Amino acid sequence: MTMKVIESLSQMRSWSRMMHHEGHTIGLVPTMGYLHEGHLSLIQTARKHSDRTVVSIFVNPTQFAPGEDLEAYPRDFQRDRRICEEQGADVVFYPSNEIMYPEDHKTYVVTEDLAGRLCGASRPIHFKGVTTIVTKLFNIVEPDVAVFGQKDAQQALIIKRMVRDLNFDVEILISPTVREEDGLAMSSRNKYMTHGQRRQAPVLYQSLQMAKDEFVKGDLSPELIKNNIIDNIKTASEAKIDYVQIVNTEDFTETDLEKGDILIALAVFFGKARLIDNVIIKR
Ligand code: PAF
After folding, report:
1. How far apart are CA 132 and CA 211, in angstroms?
2. Which of 38, 157, 219, 281 has its CA 20 to 30 A from that of 146?
3. Across residues 195-222, what is the average pLDDT?
4. Quick one: pLDDT band at residue 137, thresholds 50, 70, 90?
5. Which residues, including other chains, have CB under 8 Å from residue 245's CB and lie 6 or more apart?
């Protein structure tokens, strides 16, 4: 089957309905394009868990606040299209802004409380934009499975909660973070860094790994471990910390850290690049 590029809502819906009618399951990989190896692993996860794979490419304006990098966000549709074809996707869904957000668009989806913590504290409208666009994509593509990356741990957990709370009939799969050789998590935003900033950026994953080891050993309090992460990151002269948090994965607060899964998450600026990364401790 040759890969299709679909730009219209009605064609996307008809294709999905036809696939379901023929008895196929559909896996969706929502992306904002400028694909890297992390996305390739999401596509392969979708292919493994469904018969047909749709990759959506849409730089979603509602998840960027004024002054953030919406205009600068890297775009290269022809390259993305080629990559999707090589990876065996069946459809690239590539809608325009006008189609996704007509001028009189007034409806949003919000996951209360969770959307205001961690990254939501400094990006207050971000997750409202994410949950809204993901809802729209689910309604248009009607996937059986949707795949998100562990690197965006808060996003993945919020989407899981939204799916549960709003009774979406879609299984959410979380695919492990893909890293450069030096440990830096792959991200479309890594290209914003200067050479010097890029050289320092692996300090983030090093600090997270150190924190995970300390947490598992159990000798230090979460507060001390957090301070150690901060001190370690500060050894990189270009790093400007947005936040470092050790929270539970249920409501992203610092309560109940003795039981349940733990998320150690951070966001740090290196120049224009706001990098996020995390580790989860499963218990
Ligand atoms: O993770 C992303 O690239 C975006 O937040 C998503 C899920 C495609 C929604 O725009």
Report:
1. 34
2. 281
3. 97
4. very high
5. 118, 226, 252, 254, 263, 264, 265, 266
Cα Dmax for the chain: 58
- 234: pLDDT confidence band, cut at 50, 70 and 90? very high
Residue 184 has pLDDT above 80, yes or no: yes
- Measured in Å, residue 228 CA sits from the centre of ligand 1 at 31
Residues in contact with ligand 1 (CB, 6 Å cut-off): 30-32, 60, 63, 130, 133-134, 152, 155
- pLDDT surpasses 90 at 283: no
